[in-house]
Amino acid sequence: ERWEVQARKGVLELVVLAALWSGRLYGLELIRRLEGAAQLAVPEGTLYPLLRRLESQGLLVSEWREEDKRNKRFYRLSGMGLQMLTLLVVEWRSIDESLDALLSESHHESARPVSPGR
After folding, report:
1. pLDDT 10s per residue in the chain (118 long)?
2. What are phi and psi of 63, to 5 degrees?
3. What distances in angstroms separate CA 43 from CA 27, 83, 114, one per listed residue?
4. Is the distance from CB of 62 to CB of 55 less than 8 angstroms?
5. Residues 34, 13: contact at Cβ < 8 Å?
6. Which of 88, 5, 91, 13 is CA-nearest to residue 55?
7. I want to staple 25 with a disulfide (CB 3.0 to 4.6 A). Which of 30, 52, 72, 96 is the partner?
8. What is the DSSP string of 79-91?
9. What is the spatial distance between Cα 48 and Cα 98, in angstroms, rounded to a whole number?
């Protein structure tokens, strides 16, 4: 179970930046998007500190707006956040290609792990 937690932590920043690439979202919208499109459950206690950290690093910009008679904090990528997302996607794809190459070299086809959907 510990390895799963570490793996998720390693990609969570990338997933959050990718989810915000399409536009401005408030926290609960972001959680719903991650649960829907990415099929990734991210607890509020994990997401909000991450959003604050990404904002303090200059990768996100936030603003308070009233919606449905409630104040909500909306997050969006900054210019630097978009650059970081681009770099992280390139790195992720490189790692994915390397992993696929290593797994395809296997002489034991029946023992090779297969990811869901492939």
Report:
1. 788 877 777 789 999 999 999 999 999 999 999 999 878 888 999 999 999 999 999 999 999 999 889 999 999 999 999 999 999 999 999 999 999 999 988 645 555 566 665 5
2. -150, 145
3. 11, 26, 28
4. yes
5. no
6. 13
7. 30
8. HHHHHHHHHHHHH
9. 33
Q: What is the DSSP letter of 43?
A: -
Identity of the amino acid at 95: I
CA–CA separation, 97 vs 109, rounded Å? 18
Name the pTM for this structure.
0.80
Structure tokens at 69: 């008679």
Starting at the edge strand found earlier in the chain, the sheet holding 70-77 runs 25-26, 70-77, 60-67
Residue 99 is encoded by which pair of tokens?
């992993």
